[in-house]
Amino acid sequence: MFISLPEEVTYILYKLHEHGFAGYIVGGCVRDSLLNTEPDDWDITTDARPDQVKQLFAKTIDTGLKHGTVTVVINGRQYEVTTFRHLGSVTNADSLTLLKEDLSRRDFTINAMAYSRQTGLVDYFNGVNDLKKGVINAVGKPEQRFREDALRMIRAIRLACQLNFIIGNETFAAITGNHQLLRSVSRERIRDELGKIVLTDQPGRGILMLRSTSLLGYILPELADSSDFEHTLAILEAAPKKLTVRLAALLYKLGQPWSEKENEKRNLSKPASERQNSVRKALNRLKFPKQTVDTVYRLVREQLDELAFPDKVSIKKFITRVGPENLQSFFELQAAVIKASQPSYDFSALDVLQEQVCNILKEKQPLTVKDLAVNGYDLMEIGIQPGEQMGQVLDRLLEKVLAEPEMNTKENLLKMVMAEQGIDNV
Ligand code: ATP
Ligand code: MG
């Protein structure tokens, strides 16, 4: 067994060995190397303590000293070097015993292998076998492992989708039987795994597995009992691999009006703003960054059948609402919706809109508040208060300028505000 290592990793292992410490690459990078895919990062495990690791290398960062992790920086690249995770009682054991203890605390057999050139592959839990079979199995008793850390249940699904693997029967049963444990996991950790699932080649399969294991109820309860789940999965599968577009695809139906039939059935008809807010709420709850939430919200807010524009100003208003930087994503999402909805695709309405938008963009006329010839400071100088008043004034100026681009000069706009506010000329 030979794994080809980046130069920097070889150097780190050499340094550790030279000073009498054990050093192995471990976890995801061993797995990916055996699968012949390029690892995202190379993690190293050692019996050296963090302070000892820091002494060996010129540039290090204290990443997680509590967890025994030091980041070593070489050639501008970062490598995490972590002291063997083990129980306090086994500190005097030899290094292979310590390594085994470390590996036994990892989540899945395919993630619980280590390698060094001297020792070769260290595989105490049949990771190679499971890699060959394409199976995700917990290390040890699945149920116990999920009790220690329930995030592993989502990680199993994420890895299955990333690698096109299946989840072993016992491990799968332990997920289904213990879904409620997910309640104890922080939303940030859940968010990161959800983001990775939607960005795999099998996002629909991932969300379906989350639902069939009942995990989805703790992640996106809004989707867990939605009636047109199949359609959501189809949109998701048709969307390109971009986080905001995939999230918008996932939540698209949530932001859309109910069909008339469904309204009767449910005897409710939520106003549009409320439906769209539920998209925002869901993403905020999962602690997605503000920017991500805003973009997804802007994407799901629009409905293609309402976007037949009679005039230039309404096209400009549409561009302003979506945001010029999100137009590409908007068209990608709508194309996915069309692909998922129709047995024979009809892109004509979307094509028309795209052409109209292109033409407007070519004219390079002002489209957003940022394009106005005045900014907040200019307005403060004539006495407009920052905050709500400022926002309203800027919105009114934009409204004016969208209709009459030639009005977009500093002099004109200031004059307009002063007249409106009854401010005397200074
Ligand atoms: P990726 O390719 O996304 O980086 P990965 O398997 O490397 O996948 P990381 O989150 O980078 O995942 O974790 C690195 C390694 O740490 C894993 O391969 C696994 O051995 C171990 N690990 C990570 N999270 C857990 C966990 N929750 N429980 C046990 N071991 C874990
Ligand atoms: Mg990794």
Textual characterization of the structure:
The chain has helices spanning 7-18, 28-34, 50-56, 95-104, 127-133, 142-148, 151-163, 169-177, 187-198, 203-212, 216-219, 221-224, 229-238, 243-255, 260-266, 272-285, 290-301, 312-322, 327-341, 348-362, 376-381, 388-403, 410-421; strands at residues 23-26, 43-46, 60-64, 69-74, 77-83, 114-116, 120-122, 135-136, 166-167. The strands form two sheets. It has a seven-stranded mixed sheet. It has four domains: 1-133, 2-Layer Sandwich (Beta Polymerase, domain 2), CATH 3.30.460.10; 145-219, Hydrophobic Seed Protein; 226-364, no CATH class; 369-421. It has 426 residues and is of the alpha+beta class. The longest helix is centred in the last third of the chain and has 16 residues, at 388-403. 55% of the residues lie in helices and 8% in strands. The termini are far apart. The chain is built from 23 helices and nine strands. The structure holds adenosine-5'-triphosphate and magnesium ion. Adenosine-5'-triphosphate is lined by residues 27-28, 40, 43, 106-107, 111, 149, 151-152.
The radius of gyration is 28 Å
Low-confidence stretches: 259-268
How many domains would you count in the coordinates?
4
Note the beta-strand portion.
5-15%
Could you say which small molecules are bound to this protein?
adenosine-5'-triphosphate, magnesium ion
Element layout with pairings:
Elements: H1 7-18, E1 23-26, H2 28-34, E2 43-46, H3 50-56, E3 60-64, E4 69-74, E5 77-83, H4 95-104, E6 114-116, E7 120-122, H5 127-133, E8 135-136, H6 142-148, H7 151-163, E9 166-167, H8 169-177, H9 187-198, H10 203-212, H11 216-219, H12 221-224, H13 229-238, H14 243-255, H15 260-266, H16 272-285, H17 290-301, H18 312-322, H19 327-341, H20 348-362, H21 376-381, H22 388-403, H23 410-421
Parallel strand pairs: 2-5, 8-9
Antiparallel strand pairs: 1-2, 1-6, 3-4, 4-5, 6-7
The protein binds adenosine-5'-triphosphate and magnesium ion (MG).
Adenosine-5'-triphosphate binds at residues 27-28, 40, 43, 106-107, 111, 149, 151-152.
